[in-house]
Amino acid sequence: MRAFTYERAGSSQAAAAAAAAAPSAKFIAGGTNLLDLMKLQIEVPTHLIDVNPLKLDRIEPTQEGGLRIGALVRNTALASDERVRRDYGVLSRALLSGASGQLRNRATTAGNLLQRTRCPYFYDTAQPCNKRQPGSGCSAIDGFSRQLGVVGVSEACIATHPSDMAVAMRVLDAKVETVKPDGATRTIPAEELHRLPEASPHLETVLERGELITAVTLPKPVGGTHIYRKVRDRASYAFALVSVAAIVQRDGSGRVALGGVAPKPWRIEQAEAELPRGAKAAAAALLDGARTTKDNAFKLPLVERTLGAVLSEARG
Amino acid sequence: MNRRDLMAAAGACAALPLTQGGARSQPAPAGKPVKAEVSFTVNGRKHALDVDTRTTLLDALREHLHMTGTKKGCDHGQCGACTVIVDGQRINSCLSLAVMHPDAEITTIEGLGTVENLHPMQAAFVKHDGFQCGYCTPGQICSSVAMLDEIEAGIPSHVTSDLTVSVTLSESEIRERMSGNICRCGAYSNIVEAITEVARTRA
Amino acid sequence: MKFDTPATTNPIDAMKVVGQPRDRLDGPLKVTGGARYAYEQHDVAANQAYGYVLGAGIAKGTIRQLDIEAARNAPGVLAVVTAREAGKLDKGKRNTARLLAGPEIQHYHQAIAVVVAETFEQARAAASLIRVDYAEEPGTFDLEAARSKASEPEGDDPSLKDSRIGDFPGAFASAPVKLDETYTTPDESHAMMEPHATVAAWEGEKLTVWTSNQMVAWTVVDMAKTLGIPKENIRVVSPFIGGGFGGKLFLRADVLLAALGARAARRPVKLALQRPLIMNNTTHRPATIQRVRIGATRDGKITAIGHESWSGDQKGGGPELAVSQTRLLYAGANRMTAMRLAAMDLPEGNAMRAPGEAPGLMVLEMAMDEMAEKLGMDPIAFRLLNDTQVDPEKPKRPFSMRRLDECFKVGAERFGWSRRSPRPGQNRDGKWLVGLGVAAAFRNNLVMKSGARVRLGSDGILTVETDMTDIGTGSYTIIGQTAAEMLGVELDKVVVKLGDSSFPASAGSGGQWGGNSSTAGVYAACVKLREAIAQKLGINSSEAVFAGGEVRSGNRSIPLSKAIEQAPLIGEDTIEYGDLDETHQQSTFGAHFVEVAVDAATAETRIRRMLAVCSAGRILNPKTARSQVIGAMTMGAGAALMEELAVDTRRGFFVNHDLAGYEVPVHADIPHQEVVFLEETDPMSSPMKAKGVGELGICGVGAAVANAIYNATGIRVRDYPVTLDKMLDRMPDAA
Questions:
Q1: CATH architecture of the domain with residue range C2-35+447-582
Q2: C714 touches A at CB < 8 Å
Q3: How far apart, in whole angstroms, are the C-alpha atoms of residue A218 and residue A176?
Q4: What is the pLDDT of residues B49-85, one digit of tens each?
Q5: ipTM (interface pTM)
């Protein structure tokens, strides 16, 4: 870990401005992912801006009948919020399936969205990795890739996004609110926040230099049965091999997003038209164009079977 | 093969600065350590520290305050041995910087009880042999004490069947909620018995 | 004391303290954070600096250039030691690869440098500034590919040799019912919770290391050889060990590099191997490919049994002894076993909890399950039919005690085995497919020379000193119980001091020999002390009864304190063994029962119930012994369901080298576990009449889980771990 200077942020805009001003600054909130990566010299900021003093830890109703979740709301607090449990069960379930009690007590809403991949080659600085070291090559494609992605991947990178929460946010049509160094704010739909790797896997989001996430908003509840099904070898405290976030209505229509299969939460709205026809058709549409390795090809049938189980659970 | 590359030595402990297009840049100078002051309360006692900004809360406790009851098992949030209770919540102290906790109230294993006056959870661990090598034990105990508070506060878990009603204590709830504390000796079955006993007397 | 005739009645038989489920003596310290592990010995030597280890970024090749200038000049850095700075170093007898590499690299993450700095943060930052130019060479990293080049292991040890009894090929060929299958087990990591860690301090020529090591005496010898200094100049202290499982049997890089760093920095140095380094830097349980052939009559009598195993290791290393149990576990006139070893360039393989039997029984006991099905027999009935009371290779050589049959019968009754459906895939509980599985547990009982010193002080405190270690096994407690029983005092009058090479050399903790052997050593020392006390009190020691803090002889009754009025009394001795383990086969036995539920959609397996019934001689402390067994069952569950060091066969390393990537069981994976010990004493094992349990508990667990999965689903996975990706294509159609 390189030496860094440290400041406690006074306001969101000041934090964004400070981040843009320093040569390689990072925001730190929960720290549960950033410090892990700094210890391994994968993240090497020279300046840390602690955003914890910002009062971004509230969950408030929006005028549209939804919820505005402050960027610093901890995973535990978000999962436990009565409104979230009642109206956005898929989000509560996704959060509770992730990490451990200790980590959820620290990890924040914004930080969770910005988690970096758990690809083991990304984590090993002696190995080539296009995401960590652009142009060095991808060790995973012909290496150990059981955990890695099958859709949305590229020749340069097959890393997956490790978040559970983000999958639920995607299926809920969440939006991300940010502030830029000049004070301008914008709203980014969850679907647009993460980029696909293509030739530049090191560019993971559309956020600009210094841009700070201040909140995530959820639209008005859509009802339906909320299910988050995470499949993993270990019964807890493990990343998803595959996960399915679903909101299913009584008429069989609904929404579905996948985790553990792609560089971002994976949702294809057109595929949802297939839901009433069953898991096979919907999975085929979601996984259209999949590109697998010998280690992770099992994810295709696993998605279909898990989706089938989710739909049958939703039917009751 | 016999390729000749200038490479970082090892994933665990070496790296190059991120650069475009390969790994041949010169390393940046290491930079002088940056120090910062922080004070917080540990087990009721206030401590003022002047630490390297890189110092984790875990290393502040172990190396600066010599409170070595809190353990370093992985230093990456993957084992739970470093669990302490900060402002009432259990966290992994390895993934938090000391400077991020001004004025915090921290409880470590040393603050729960002593050999002469064990905390009920500590006593239950001894009685049920909820440990073997003992290295994960302080983390398990701090975690379990805070975990019972979380249940009491109505925080749901992955195995809570209905999110809209209040949580009820069960062995499966305890197992799920304690899963962030790995015990390689495999004392889980006994740990759950110890926690269950304490939970019953608390209720 | 030489133990060469079966034990007769002795003071341990009173079982006032020994055999009782006492709480651990070190329990209060451990639950309050007061037990001081190696890295925490901050007050044993002043002015400790911090070390940080750098591992090689290639698996095989040489270092062309190692640039340490930037690191050396980094803030706070006191020294950087590489092979160049270290000078000539030898290698410990028990190490295969060098602990400090350079210029040759023998495996990934082999240590190539240690940076010593004022603070941990400075040492870590400086280590990242070291630049290495490697010439990488191709290596052998794929066991399947190397299998054809594997050869018979070298050395005179008979356990390494092929065994052939009768006419295996003929008997197998003509057997009416046959099984011939090949199985694999993966590389596994000990993943103990405490990283390898050491504080090293020099005083002139003398070195003291406070470390975390299972075998104190081995470490002294191997460190002396590595440094080329007399072993008298080395003291090793290891009072608490945060788990070992075989991973801390040997001198490892933490000890050597702390010592070299301390010498270079002229200051005490402490360091711990960073977690992401441990899995490739230290030892692991090697992967195996195993072929089992069983031939039987139609009524289930085994006529031919053959077991072959292929494994790899660094050149100069040894094979995984995966066939050894097959020479002893089941009857059958025609038998063969063989191991083949491939020279490979993966990190060094070595012992992990029940080396040999753990992976061997994962395979053999799955094969037995498959064979029972072919025969249309109940798996327990098939095993019992082929039970034997004698060494099947040497029918004149009996087992000292063998109650495998009772383990199965008691377990079957308790577990409700009769409710198991003989046809797989029949039992559904909602979305779950439910099945039961069973396997035999078997592990030899090894006896090792072990010494101890006991002192009865003028304060009436009985102090035991031995370099024995407590790695979570309960050594402190059972040693205390032994001494208390022998001298007839309460346990709270006993102080046990362990893990210091200045104490008498013990058996150490390994191979499940530690409990029985080290307490037998304490027994021997206590016999000496009893003699000294009796002599002091003027009574005949052979008639003396030590009980209630008194010595009784005839109708005389003298308080122990009488004997130490003038001076403390000391007894010191070593237990040594004759040939009882040759005339009689000493082994431990058990039966594992497991119930699993497999998700019908995703093929995720979750364990619902586990039971082990063990026959392992006298149980010195049922509480700590039970913990040993449940812990081993947990590790066995991990081996069955999730544990695998993933090999990158191009680059030659274990890819998932941390505790997020290498999954071991968590709380949610493990149900309530039940353990039953058959009541028994084995007079052939030692005066304690005890045997090991710590490794028995893992033996067979993996197969019991896999057999339960088969019973639940009808899917046989012969490549461990049994993960969902290997089952999905054979699972019933999704709902």
A1: 2-Layer Sandwich (3.30)
A2: no
A3: 9
A4: 999 999 999 999 999 999 999 999 999 999 999 999 9
A5: 0.98
